[in-house]
Amino acid sequence: MPTKSLISELPDIVRDGNREAAAILDRLSSPNRITLQTNELVLPAKATSAIRFKDNQINPTTPTTPITPVNQINPTLPQNPNRLIYGDNLLAMQALLGGDPATGLPSLRGKVDLIYIDPPFDSKADYRTKLTLPGDDISQKPTTIEQFAYADTWKDGTASYLRMLYPRLVLMRELLSDHGSIYVHIDWHVGHYVKVLMDEIFGKENFVNEIVWCYSGPQRSFQNFSRKHDLIFLYKKTDSATFNVQRIAHKSGLHGKGGLGFRNGEENNDRLRELEEQGKVLEDWWVDISTVGRIVKEITGYATQKPEALLERIIKASSNEGDLVCDFFGGSGTTAAVAERLGRRWITTDIGKPATLVMRKRLIDQEVKPFLYQAIGDYQKEMMHGTRLFRSIGDLSQVVMQLYGALPFTPDQVADRNYGYIKDERTLVYVDSPNKLTGRATLRRASEATQSLLGGGWRKCIVLAWNFSYDISQAIEEYKNTVEVLVIPPDLMDKLKKQGFTKLVQSGTVRFSGLQYLKLKDIQKKTYGAEDTLTIELDDYVQLSPESLPLDDKDREALRRLMDEDPLALIEYWSIDPDYDGVTFRSLWQDYRENVAVDRDPLHCLYRTELTVPHKESRAVCVKAVDVFGFESVVVERI
Questions:
Q1: Which backbone phi and psi does 217 adopt, to 5 degrees?
Q2: 416 to each of 453, 482, 488, 598, how far by Cα in Å?
Q3: What is the pLDDT of residues 388-426, one digit of tens each?
Q4: Taking a C-beta distance cutoff of 8 angstroms, is the pair 412, 402 a contact?
Q5: How far apart are CA 81 and CA 41, in angstroms?
Q6: What is the C-alpha to C-alpha distance for residues 83 and 359, in angstroms, rounded to an integer?
Q7: Could you please report the per-residue DSSP string of 98-144?
Q8: Among residues of the chain, what percentage have pLDDT more than 70?
Q9: Largest alpha-carbon pair distance within the chain?
Q10: How confident is the model over 174-196, as a mean pLDDT?
């Protein structure tokens, strides 16, 4: 049977994309709509020396305002705070469109003034992340959630890419204000197919420009003309869209032979000065902006990073100070960084953990205003999309369950196929979805199941999971008497494809390991009048088993050596909330690799600090550490 042409598939892509977007918009008023969990309120105070927070100055950015919980009106943040969101942008946009009455964050439908996106556009791209560690560089594969996303995006080539993009563009249109514009950065792989979609979604009459960004570089082709330009499609929401004329310096030829034909020298000189001051009105081909590789001070190590000058031009052209700018494929965070510098508000999202780590560090280095670091709530993506690797999540769950050594319940016993049990041990086993972040809500349900499932009386429930939400460490501590959490190896899908279920069981190579955790030395407190000085020091970091990480064999061995010799070197950053309220973590102090302001060591954090805070008889100190793979550990101590 001949393969369908892409042109013939476009009507189906448009129809299905509109249906999916319509279903999403219909769900916005549902009580079960997707919301965002606030991981932390980031207050960009990086380690430089001991920090003193005086009474009524806990928040160094607003010295007269004490911090209040984020679910109240928080005077430390604007009504619509800047946000860094980890997770699938389709889900993030749903949350932004729906708003969240519980936190007082309103719907952003029709409130976004500018959107720039730079979606991935090469199916053969290498999505690995290089990690530089003491003694070795290792290469991290994408997380399971990312692997599923990339597999869905490229499984049918360009057609599935367009299916991924279409409903997202529809939601972006819903977010745009009447003054809003959208820039979609793309290249020759899919460029003109994307333009067809945008004509359909935004209206061909609202197409403004096809911008050609030309650049040069060392890679040359001898089989064709070297491909050295990207396309940026600009569309407006309405005729009221903001547009500020941009100018660039005239070429030196302005002074050259022939001039501009002015009648006398004095008039010529005056007109030349006027033109030089104004500059030349910018056209739709840009040859004056270099790629990041030529701008050393901007390099973050993120593969698809775009130069700040490019985003500065776009943001200045299509927004004004105070406007809201969004980037839903955030990458290295260039859009957010430039928007902040230009006095715009911003929201940026990415499905990749490495990207969110890069962005967070970059924004702190820039000393931006406080922002929220959020994640998609406890969701089930497969409820919307399903998975094509197995007929159902239930099928996959039962395979994982049996690899662990548990038995599935029959449908007559338990309808939920994610549950099983260990014979003769009165132990439940629950296998979570690969498309889900396992967090407190999952552990609560597992704990309740020990008392309710088939009459209750279960000793405990073992939760096998792929991906974890920010609150997992605290949740494990909260439910430690009834729930145990183990990590499913992230390469299990690959092993199942290569070896099959039977051979994999016989090989005995599948290992389920416990989660990572952080150890602190005892926090020391000394009181001097109305102030307490806290000495906080990291003691040890226990990483996941290398078998549970998305690494090649040689990199696993390098990681084992580092875990034995220098485990704290695995910490990417750690931060402290010295007066944790149990609701919102506020990072009042933080240090991270590559912050050389104190120790000049780019591969290690500081592991000890002193903070001076207003005296309290009792306080909860919360310390959060995130390792180089993006896994998070939280320790709360009451002193």
A1: 180, 175
A2: 11, 20, 19, 53
A3: 445 556 688 888 998 999 999 998 999 888 999 998 899
A4: no
A5: 10
A6: 11
A7: H-BTTTTBPP-TTTEEEEEE-----TT----EEEEETTEEEEEPPPH
A8: 83
A9: 103
A10: 94
- Euclidean distance between CA atoms 290 and 277, whole angstroms: 23
For residue 276, pLDDT over 70 is answered with: no
pLDDT band at 294 (very low <50, low <70, confident <90, very high): low
Supply the DSSP string of 488-546, one letter for each residue.
Answer: PPTTHHHHHHHHHHHHHHHHT----EEPPEEEEPPPEEEEETTEEEEEEEEEEEEPPPG
More confident residue, 301 or 595: 595
Of the pLDDT bands very low, low, confident and very high (cuts 50, 70, 90), residue 354 is confident
Nearest by Cα to 637 from 627, 624, 568: 624
> Is 93 exposed, middle or buried, given 0-12, 13-18 or 19+ CB atoms closer than 10 A?
buried
Residue 558: both structure tokens together: 């390098």
Give CA separation, 343 vs 239, 320, 323, 351, 368, in Å: 24, 8, 8, 26, 10
Q: Which range among 145-159, 413-427, 504-518, 593-607 has the greatest average pLDDT?
A: 413-427
Burial (CB count within 10 angstroms: exposed 0-12, middle 13-18, buried 19+), residue 459: exposed
pTM comes to: 0.80
Q: 122: closest CA among 185, 78, 175, 174?
A: 185
Enclosing H/E stretch for 165: helix 158-175
Condensed to tens digits (0 to 9), the pLDDT of residues 44-103 reads: 877 765 444 444 333 333 222 222 222 322 335 557 799 999 989 999 999 999 998 767
* Spatial CB neighbours of 341, under 8 Å, sequence gap ≥ 6: 366
Q: Is residue 256 scored above 60 in pLDDT?
A: no
Tokens matching residue 227: 């491909």
More confident residue, 434 or 124: 434
How far is C-alpha 409 from the chain's CA centre? 37
What is the distance between the alpha carbons of residues 311 and 347, in angstroms, rounded to a whole number?
A: 14
Phi, psi of 272 (to 5 degrees): -60, -45
Tell the burial category of 351 from Cβ atoms under 10 Å away from its Cβ (0-12, 13-18, 19+). buried
Contact 40, 587 (CB under 8 A): yes
Quote the pLDDT of residue 547.
72
Q: What is the pLDDT of residue 594?
A: 86
Residue type, 206: N
Q: Which percentage of the chain shows pLDDT scores above 90?
A: 42
At residue 62, the pLDDT reads: 27
Give dist(CA 322, CA 80) in Å, integer. Answer: 11
Strands 437-438 and 467-468: parallel
pLDDT value of position 381: 41
Count other Cβ atoms within 10 Å, centred on residue 315: 26
DSSP string, 349-402: EES-HHHHHHHHHHHHHTTPPPEEEEEE-S--THHHH--SSSS-HHHHHHHHHH
Q: Looking at the DSSP assignment, which residues form a beta bridge with residue 620?
A: 638
Cβ-count burial of 507 within 10 angstroms (0-12 exposed, 13-18 middle, 19+ buried)? exposed
Residue type, 356: T
